[in-house]
Amino acid sequence: MRKQDITIYDVAREAKVSMATVSRVVNGNTNVRKDTRERVLKVINRLHYQPNAVAQGLASKRTTTVGLIVPDLTNLYFAELSKGIDDIALLYKYNIIITSIENRLMKEDQAIQGLLNKQVDGIIYMSDNLPEEAAEAFKRTDTPVVLAGTKSNHQEFPSVAIDYMKADTEALNLLYNDGKKNLALVLDDPDTVVNAENRIPAYKKFMADHNLGEGHIYSNIKDHSDGYNLYSQLRQDGIDGVIVTRDITAVGILNAATDAGTKIPEEMEIVTASATQIASVVRPALTAIRQPLYDIGAVAMRLLTKLMNNEEIDQKQIELPYELLKKQSTANK
Amino acid sequence: MRKQDITIYDVAREAKVSMATVSRVVNGNTNVRKDTRERVLKVINRLHYQPNAVAQGLASKRTTTVGLIVPDLTNLYFAELSKGIDDIALLYKYNIIITSIENRLMKEDQAIQGLLNKQVDGIIYMSDNLPEEAAEAFKRTDTPVVLAGTKSNHQEFPSVAIDYMKADTEALNLLYNDGKKNLALVLDDPDTVVNAENRIPAYKKFMADHNLGEGHIYSNIKDHSDGYNLYSQLRQDGIDGVIVTRDITAVGILNAATDAGTKIPEEMEIVTASATQIASVVRPALTAIRQPLYDIGAVAMRLLTKLMNNEEIDQKQIELPYELLKKQSTANK
DNA sequence: AGAATAGCTGTAAACGTTTGCACTTTTTGG
DNA sequence: CCAAAAAGTGCAAACGTTTACAGCTATTCT
Predict the structure, then answer these.
(1) Quick check: A117 contacting B, CB < 8 Å?
(2) Is the pLDDT of residue A70 over 70?
């Protein structure tokens, strides 16, 4: 096995010091005389010594590894969040163990337990929803956790997100001012905290405030074909303006509308509540609530580094600014 | 610290056995009497004992962790590959450490060294290109490596991919049979092995075989706006049929064409050489070489599990079938 | 019944680091 | 120049497992 030919012992022997000193050199401890440090470094280079991170992890109880829990890697929403996380993790020299939980073999709490067994120093949780068992699992551990791009009604968990209620209200207002009065809300999952506690209340309040009646909420519309198939229902219900949680779903509606000869935005306006790359490359391009996904990820990871170092946190719930990006799926005024 | 309140010792004491026996129970070793096994399991459940994977890794020299090297998480091509990898990894109980190398702070060989230091049991490499230093790094280690969705001229590395040359030729043939004679090749990076040794030769050979002249190869066209901006050049060069490596780039060309009033596919046909979700949701939908990305990832991971178990491999270079999926960006015949 | 064998369990040495403590050497200040 | 403080170093125990190896206890066979 070539796997670990040279250990800290070999270096110590060659450099005629103890392993403790080698360890100090490796870890940049200042209590080493300049010339011994250089001598040790020379040996390290000559032997191509590389510390065994597993042994370091066991001895120091820090693995410089963080866990990422994500529902679906191929959902660009999470991919863009992950990118922000990854960049900051690299900066702070953390590795990332990624656990995808879309696969129903892997429940949230199992995923969490798996990460804890691997002794990750922290966890970033990105699923839209935080089931009770997952919250329990987090509460049982000392390992810090940050929610990224989502919210929980557990106020104890630090999170980074946008003000979904405000954003949705602003989007509804845009539609309303464009003269659309038969507004609908299209949701992926009605039971996530973001939807149940933010988007739905925002929608209901808006409808009530403007005397627009009950309105229409469509649930469990999750991908392109769901959106495509929903379109005829929307027409039947006389919808002329719609907010859609996922942009890929919005594209489905858009394509169905185009195929049916419906004029967008004249006859129907579409706004997506989370924009990825996709929203901007389809035609007509989608008006969108642009969440700063990369930044949410980056800030979440930065926050986690602080928690892992037991630094003081000024605020646990961070809200980043969003933008309402007007494109071709709403009136050009 | 609650981090590790209970160890194998605690279980051993409570169950009145040695830690060795507890270890055997945890690892499903059969050499344990039924009633002691049950007694131990009961204690494990009562104390909520969870093995420390880091200690296990150090003692057993297996971490049940594999490393993934990927250029860009937000590129759906790699995301879809990753999904296949992830599913099989879950099945075989491996965790995944993901390392993104798009960030120029992280070179390939550093990424590899980082994974090796973490003592991963295997590595899947997904970048389009395998730089010489990376190949060297792989050769120095015993840790098995599999290339997924890419090729290398290092035949010693197992890989899973499609026959790019054949696929491209078939696509060119489609354009040719639709009557397009001024064919172009649009590449992300001309120096990757896949492009330099497969796509470009296939293109040149096709052009020569059909007396179509030198042809036009456009390089370093990597994203939507690159594609969009390239369009006028294509027109200027009289191109009427084009193969594009990335689908997001193809969409850029498509959108520019639509904006310019060019009829697709009548005046120009577009085929993308790698289809993700995006290719199918734009309008007109893109004709594409559909690589079985999920399967490539899954097969690569399966292959890696065999290598990690020192099982015999019947073939190192695996080629999976692709499909030429005709959509609206080529003639409907 | 006694020997051989198989099944079960415990002991203790790894695995490759980090780190508290004690000790020695050097530096500093009066 | 000496005492006190600071800097540098090594020793050895820890981190929480796995796993030879040995030993002990049933079981099987003749």
Answers:
(1) yes
(2) yes
